[in-house]
Amino acid sequence: SPQQSNVTSYGAITVAIITLEAFPGMWINAFIVCVLCIAWVKKKTLNSNEKILLLLGCSRFWYLCIAWVYKFLSFIYPNYLYVHTILQLAVFFQAFFNHSNLWFSACLCGFYCIKIANFRNRSFIYLKVKIDRMVPWLLLGSGILALAVGIIAYDIAAKPHCNSNSTGQGNFGTANIKMDKHFFPSFFLAGFEYAASFLVVIFAAVFLLLSLWRHKCRMQTNSMKDLSMDAHIRAMKSILSFLVMYSINFVCLVLNMVYVTKKGNHMTFIILVFQYTFPGLHSLILVFSNPKLEKTLLKILP
């Protein structure tokens, strides 16, 4: 029928666009992981910044990979998703790696802020001294929070309210979840994690701006080039790019929570485009803000 033909062509366009976004994103995140793993083997250790970047690259690579495979199967071989636990596992891993991505990004922003900003507050000085020891625990906590959301997403996908037969019916492989009062706690938890990670980025940007402004006021009488000022400016460029992209991504995540229950196909398409762009584009910004990664990338590109 004409309606089924439109749905099929719409789904094909969606899969094509997602493929064009997902593969470059997977490549740039795989590049980050490979460079850091080689450095890890050579130096036998990684600093805190590299640890965060390594886990961030891994989470984004696997998120894009699993999400792309899920969308591809939902359009080309939707019957594969009818098999018990396939849909649940796909939803679990997507939720886990997506929230890992958000929390590791927030950890990176907070780390930049604490390491670079200069405040005389005793608590801030304590954090600056202890931050390297705190990073592994922050990463562990981020993984546990992401795991909790993944488990809840798996439980929701296993409910009879979640109809996996809707894959391929025009909603691009997203399970058709009918709103139920039992699902509100899970949506609340996911929304809370979105908002909390977003607030970390906002506070990091605000504190770095304040630090940069205060440092600039102190250095107005000094005409010499200041390395601390350069570090502030580089970090601010990175975190402001984080803030802009995080704002767009946060809006898309919230809209996704709304439209997953209302089958808003056109809005879902726009949301997917932004969500698949974020992990790759943000990682590319991270590469060009890191001298070692930038030098390696420019060396291998020719």
From TrEMBL:
- Top-level taxon in the UniProt lineage: Eukaryota
CDD domains with a match to the protein in the record: 7tm_TAS2R (cd13950)
Gene3D superfamilies in alphabetical order: Rhodopsin 7-helix transmembrane proteins
Q: Where in the cell is it found?
A: Membrane
**Alphabetical UniProt keywords:** G-protein coupled receptor, Membrane, Receptor, Sensory transduction, Taste, Transducer, Transmembrane, Transmembrane helix
Q: What is the lineage of its organism?
A: Eukaryota, Metazoa, Chordata, Craniata, Vertebrata
Instruction: Report what the protein is called.
Output: Taste receptor type 2
| Family per record | Belongs to the G-protein coupled receptor T2R family.
Q: Which residues form a coiled coil?
A: none
One annotated Gene Ontology cellular component of this protein: membrane
Q: Tell me where it mainly resides.
A: membrane
Task: Give TM segment ranges.
Answer: 12-40, 52-70, 90-114, 135-154, 194-213, 239-260, 266-289
Which terms in the Gene Ontology molecular function aspect does this entry carry? Answer: bitter taste receptor activity; G protein-coupled receptor activity
Membrane-topology descriptor: Multi-pass membrane protein
UniProt cross-references to Pfam families, sorted A to Z: TAS2R
